[in-house]
Structures are given as structure tokens and as C-alpha cells.
Amino acid sequence: MRVVGMKDVARRAGVSVGTVSNVLNRPDIVSPDRRERVEAAIAELGYVRNDAARQLKLGRSSTVGAIVLDSGNPFYGQLVGGIEAAAEDSQLMVIAGSTGNREQRERLYLSLFEEQRVRGILLASTGGSAETVEAIRGRGTPVVLVESDPGERGSSVSVDDIAGGEIAVQHLAGLGRRRIGVVAARQDLRQVADRLRGA
Fold first, then answer.
1. Domain final residue, candidates 124, 141, 157
2. Which range marks the domain in which residue 33 is found?
3. Are residues 72 and 114 in the same domain?
4. Alpha carbon separation from 66 to 41, 72, 77, 136 (Å, rounded)
5. pLDDT in tens for each of the 199 residues of the chain?
6. Would you give the distance in Å from CA 41 to the centre of its chain?
7. pTM score
8. Which residues are CB-neighbours of 165 under 8 A, at least 6 positions away?
9. CATH code, domain with 29
10. 152 and 177 in a common domain
């Protein structure tokens, strides 16, 4: 089956390819009659816009990449939800991938997202891709690390675990609790140490 292009839509609607482009990108400048004819031709032919070609022409993507360690972890599910909400405000889409805490998979996602020319990458890193991240940044794609040290020139976002520990203890104390314990599997993790400091 042949892919329907803008020329096919233009031919069916009896307009120029430029008019079809305007209907797709700046519909407010096209007369209602022509816009309706183009929209009818698009629906009739089943035309699907080639966003990759559009992004190539514009030189920028409307997509952001998000790489998390474990998509089954509620923290990362909420993180991706927050990224999507912020992206929607900027009329961007999010493509998310889960590494399963594997460095090889993380590097594959980083490579894929760079090849796709995403606008930026948010990365919850395994810690084994620092050189790859620096190379991607050096080629112009912003990479923001999640819950990691971004290095000298990088950017990061983190939960305020000190405040989180403090809020948890205040809540329990407000309920009248006086003997409060903390259960933590790995006290060597920065996040756990910060929660203990806040408590």
C-alpha cells in the first residue's frame, strides 16, 4: 500500500501543496472553504503527517526523552507523569524508556534519543554512562540527571529528602508518636542518609 503524501491531499482538494502545509501548520491564514476541502481530503485519503520530516526541516524536535531505572517503581511512574504534564504545557511529547537498571540498555536509549533528535533528555542514570552523557551534551542535546550528581557543567533534579524526613517525623509527632524508628535497607545511599538527617 502506497503512503499518502501532501501532494495527494493537494490534488484531491484542488489546492497547492503550500495550502495543505498552511492548513497543517497555520490554519488561521487559510480561508474556511479551502481549509474544509483540505481537511476533507486528509480524512478521505487517511493522510498521516510525517513528523520526522517536519522536525528535520525545522531543525528541532517536539519530543523529550525520559529514561528511568525501573518503570514498575511508583516513584518513576510519578516522575514520568510530571514530565508529561510539564511537556504538555510546552506542546511537547514524551517518549519514555526503562533500563531495568542496566547500563547497556541506558546507553541504547541515550543513543536512540540522540538519533531521534529529541529536544532534551531526562535521565535517571545507572551511573555507568557519564562519558556518553557528556558527549551528548557536547553535541548540543541537554541532558538533565534525576537524583544524581550532574557534574560540574550539568543539570539535575532531585527530591528534597532532608525535608521529606523532617515532614514524616513532624507528621508522626503531630499524631502524638514519641518513639519513631526509621527502617532503611541501604544507609550508604545519599537519599537514605538525607532522610535520616531530616528526621
1. 157
2. 6-49
3. yes
4. 36, 15, 11, 14
5. 678 899 999 999 999 999 999 998 889 999 999 999 999 999 999 998 877 666 666 667 889 999 999 999 998 999 999 999 999 999 899 999 999 999 999 999 999 998 888 999 999 988 888 889 889 998 889 999 988 776 767 788 888 888 988 999 999 999 999 998 888 777 777 778 888 888 8
6. 33
7. 0.68
8. 182, 194, 195, 196, 197, 198, 199
9. 1.10.260.40
10. no
